Amino acid sequence: MNFQVAAFVAIGLLTEVGATGAQTTAPAMQRAVLAAPNAMPSRPAVPGDDRFAVADFDGAERAYRSLLKDGAQNSGAELGLARIALYRNELDDAERYAHALSADDPTDPRANVLLKAIGDRRDDGRNYRVAMTGEEVDVPFQIDPVPEIDALVNGKPAHLLLDTGGPGLDLTPAFAKALGVETQRGGEALFAGGRPGFFSIGHIDRLDLGGASIRSLPITVTEQPPISPGSRPGIDGVIGTKILYRFLSTIDYVNRRLVLRRKTASATFDAAAEARGAIILPMLLVPDHTIFARARVNDAPEALFNVDTGGPGIGVDVSKAEVAAAGVVPDASRAETILGGGGPTRILPFTANVTLGRRTMRQVPGIYLPDGDMHRIFPFRVAGAISQELFKRGALTFDFCAMKLIFDAPPEP
User: Fold this and answer.
1) What integer is the mean pLDDT of 218-230?
2) pTM of the model
3) d(CA 113, CA 101)
4) Same domain as 153, residue 104
5) Which residues are paired to 290 by β-bridges?
6) How confident is the model at residue 411, as a pLDDT?
7) What CATH number does the domain containing 378 carry?
8) Domain encompassing residue 298
């Protein structure tokens, strides 16, 4: 198992809508619509907040809705419902509750943050304009040690890693300079081990992935790019979630290809996946780029995990609380150090069983980061992340229309 690699969160996860001052001090990033928690005003707790904090969003939704019966107004409930709808990508509902929040309290900046986040999700023709040569585009990749794709950025050949831990298109400083991209300081991000790092922001005209192109893209540039030392020389950046969001996207590890389909194929693809017995899970998309789904480690209760594909040698990582709940025993005698975007951080390896839906994957390699928890920035409980070494057993599809995570993998022997 190769742990001498970059942290599997390619770009640090930043706190967004509705976080409180206790979580982190990461400032806002343009275009990502991320609000620094210390910039958000505090508010009294309302019924439902306790369920939200433990990632019971169904229970939180019921409690929040009960506060709005018969036309009642409650800014806390409106905020909670707007956030939950945004996580589920139910943009019309999210917008309705965000406008209600703004009307109830025009001084609360969270409404504008929500509305900006909603606008960034909509394909309004300003950014992320997609064109395809057919209904489906195959982009081959090699895994060394994570998927590497050949692309064109503003017409210039680029070697890019594929990692849902990245926000959209993150470029190395050297490649951004070679393109002549103008950048400005974006702020501070949080990387593996809870370590901070800095990034800049900019904009490019075009990204070409085989027969698929995207015009007008915001980009980030990480000062210490989290490129794995095991990767081939000349890696120029990372493709992340906001690129995959523009398609019905499949990372096919077995056949080593990224398959990009039009979003209109969602219903047909999902019906076929169900017929062939694929694992199908509800997923959430938390601003600006973080994917979540529920999983179970060993015999622990099912919990919410970040779906972060960029972890070579890593199938699962767990929080301190999940270590206890799952009976995981990290091996301190094999402690190593990885280089992430925020610098070196320690990892302790272990193996565990991971269950997705009704399917259990056995002997999944995992890590525990004892020096910090990068998931603490979220305003709800996160048990850890599931990553590449689990998904390499099959093909992983992200359906952002139906908000389903579809994993085609053979049954365990």
Assistant:
1) 67
2) 0.87
3) 11
4) no
5) 286
6) 83
7) 2.40.70.10
8) 264-408
